[in-house]
Each structure stands twice: as C-alpha cells, then as structure tokens.
C-alpha cells in the first residue's frame, strides 16, 4: 500500500506541476496570440460589438499600412531603424565601459570601492521618468536634444551601473591564479583582461548584453521626452502615436507591436546556441 501511495503521490505532483506550468504558459503566451489576431483582423470587425475570438477573414492590411507610413511625425520604418541603432550602440558601449569598470571594482584596490558600488546599484532604483526633465534641460543646453546621441547617452546612464554591478560579481568568481599566470608570462592588467578574463566571461557578457539591448529597445519614457522628430523617435514612441485623443487604432498598434517584437526574439534565438557553447567553454577554462 505504501508503495502504491508513493506512486500515486508522485503522479499527483507531476499532474499539478504540469497544470501549473500550463497555466503560466497560457498567461504568458495569450497576450501575444491575441495581439497577432488583432493585427490580422479587419478594422470593421475590431469596431463591431459582436463578440468573437477569430475574425471572419484575415487580412495583412494593418501591416501594409504600418510599413507604408511616411508622415514625418509617425514614420514606423524610421523608428525601427532608430531603435536598432540606439540599442546596438548602447549595448556596445555598455559592454566596453561596463567590463572595464567592473574589472576595476573586482581587482583593483582604491578608497570607497564598496560604497561606490552600492551607489551604482542605488541608481537603478530611481525611475527613469524622475530624471527625464533634468536630462531634457541638459541635452537642450548642449545642443543634443532630439538626436540619437542623446538617447544613447541617456540609456547608458541606465544600463551601465547594472552591468558594472553584475560583471563585478562575475569577475570576482574567476580565480586570481589565472591572472597571476598571465602576469608571469609578461601580460599587463589590460592584456590579462583582454586575453584571459573576457573570453572566460563570455556567457556573462552575452547575458548582460541581451539585457542591455532589450532594455534599450523597449525604453519609452526617456525617448518620449528627448525626441520630437522622425529622425530620432524610436519604435515605442511611434507606436504610442497610434493612440489618438478620441480613437484608438488597435489594428495598427498590434501590427506594429508584432513587428517590433521580431528583432529581439530573432536575436535571442540566433545567439542561443552561442550562449550555451560559451557557458561550456567558460566552465572548461575555469
């Protein structure tokens, strides 16, 4: 009886675990599925009061309208390019300066090192909208307002402290003996960082780089305050412009959201294999 009860309990636990995972998956995927359905639905059916899950006929008209917008105030294609440039440049500089700063905190000795690291972490608790107005005044004073450079600098102030904090812990987990061996071979600090530490830290760099990229790609509040023309507006800002004062174009918003979702998803799927390979190689070298 005890053996049978144990098997029954295991089966019940498996069923409960499966149901819990299924509920989480439904909760996570259902908004995306619903956005896809809305993006493929004609405008008349979206405006109708009749309740239905699937439209009577699917259409790509919303996607055509989004990609053909040419108004200077709402050019979706330009906003995609702006988001790509800002996110890529921000991620690149965040990883470069963040790695150097994290290595300094992990290996060098200087006064107030731990307190400065805590201050970097505290900056992540400040909402971006709280410092949007000071940023606006600063960039307006130096002539960078409504430029992609202003967005890159603003996003660097958000992502850089987090990268320094996370990479510091990653560097501290690497044995110092590896660097000491490099010093014996004639390498300096920078050479050891470039040839020893960074290759071992590839998995951590990739994971934090993905975070920086996604955080910059989805950033809205700062971009809304600092941009005003199609030359600098990013994708979230342009999607918000489909929300009018007296009407909402749900089809265009859903279609633009699905299109804007594709680059980060494809980027993550493409580099997933390299992430696993990097983690394995790092474990072997460590």
From TrEMBL:
Occurrences of domain ABC transmembrane type-1 (ranges): 80-271
Keyword list, A-Z: Cell membrane, Membrane, Transmembrane, Transmembrane helix, Transport
Domain of life: Bacteria
One of the Pfam families matching this protein, by short name: BPD_transp_1
CDD domains, per database record: TM_PBP2 (cd06261)
GO biological process terms held by the UniProt record: transmembrane transport
Membrane spanning residue stretches: 84-106, 118-139, 151-171, 192-214, 250-271
Protein name: Binding-protein-dependent transporters inner membrane component
Species annotation: Paenibacillus sabinae T27
């Amino acid at each position: 009886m005890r053996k049978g009860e144990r098997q029954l309990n295991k089966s019940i636990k498996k069923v409960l675990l499966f149901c819990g995972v299924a509920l989480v998956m439904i909760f996570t995927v259902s908004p995306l599925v619903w956005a896809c359905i809305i993006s493929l639905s004609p405008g008349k059916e979206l405006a109708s009061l009749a309740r239905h899950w699937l439209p009577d006929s699917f259409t790509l008209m919303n996607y055509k309208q989004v990609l053909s917008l040419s108004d200077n105030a709402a050019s979706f294609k330009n906003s995609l390019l702006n988001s790509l440039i800002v996110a890529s440049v921000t991620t690149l500089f965040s990883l470069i300066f963040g790695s150097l700063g994290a290595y300094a905190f992990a290996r060098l000795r200087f006064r107030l090192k731990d307190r400065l690291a805590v201050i970097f972490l505290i900056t992540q608790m400040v909402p971006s909208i709280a410092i949007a107005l000071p940023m606006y005044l600063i960039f307006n004073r130096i002539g960078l307002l409504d430029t992609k450079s202003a967005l890159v600098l603003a996003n660097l102030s958000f992502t850089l402290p987090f990268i320094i904090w996370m990479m510091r812990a990653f560097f501290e987990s690497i044995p110092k003996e590896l660097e000491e061996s490099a010093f014996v071979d004639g390498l300096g600090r920078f050479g050891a960082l470039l040839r020893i530490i960074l290759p071992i830290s590839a998995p951590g760099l990739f994971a934090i780089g993905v975070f920086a990229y996604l955080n910059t790609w989805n950033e809205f509040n700062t971009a809304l305050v600092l941009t005003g023309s199609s030359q600098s507006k990013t994708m979230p800002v342009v999607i918000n412009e489909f929300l009018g004062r007296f009407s909402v174009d749900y089809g265009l918003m859903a279609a633009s959201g699905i299109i804007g979702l594709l680059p980060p998803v494809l980027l993550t799927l493409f580099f997933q294999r390299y992430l696993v390979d990097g983690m394995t190689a790092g474990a072997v070298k460590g």
